[in-house]
Amino acid sequence: MKPVQVYDDRVVIFGQNVSNCIVCAILCFLNLIITSVSLAQQVFSIVRYGHVFLCNFNESHAVEPFLSYDIVIYDFGLFHRLWGISECIANYLDGGYLRLAWCVSYLSTMLLLALYLYISDKRPPVYLMWPALAMQSTYSIGLLILTLSALPKLLRYVFVNIDRTVILLLTIFSSGVLINFIFTYILWHYFWFSEATLAQSCTKNRERPNPNRRHHQRV
């Protein structure tokens, strides 16, 4: 028997059934915390320094320890060690504006997903899950691209020049990537289950006889 099996409605872990709704709720709450802290970094940077994201990995030049990490991509200095960059990757892209927009958008979709999961027993419309599915899938793809781009350097540090600090930072980053891939996978399964359940419910309602119509036929 496989230790972990994923179905549309549940996950079986060592023979124990866990509802996908519960798993999604836990991972949604976890990502809400991570995204909220990431957004707080940018709000703090704007209010304190007038910069959208004043991130610096160099501890001797970092203006604030809270801004020395890029939490939303689980980067606590890994890419500084691999590529020698002094600022967060978001700063090199557009100065952090896209990161700010991402945090706000992702946080909004996770809140909507949390609402859907809370009222899931009332069978709400499944289109409420669409934004979360799109954003979470994009999140996982982005982390995958980041992983592949860093892979050559990572292999050298892990197998050739063994660096315990890099291995620790890699463990944190890999854990974040893995959690998000699991979340994406289970979220899609739960969406398919919710969609099928709603469709089945609608079919039963259409097939249910109408007593008023039967009464008119007898008359």
Automatic annotation (TrEMBL):
Q: Which UniProt keywords apply?
A: Membrane, Transmembrane, Transmembrane helix
Determine the domain of life of the protein's source. Eukaryota
Where, by residue number, does the polypeptide cross the bilayer?
Answer: 21-46, 66-84, 96-119, 139-159, 166-188
What is the recorded name of this protein? Uncharacterized protein
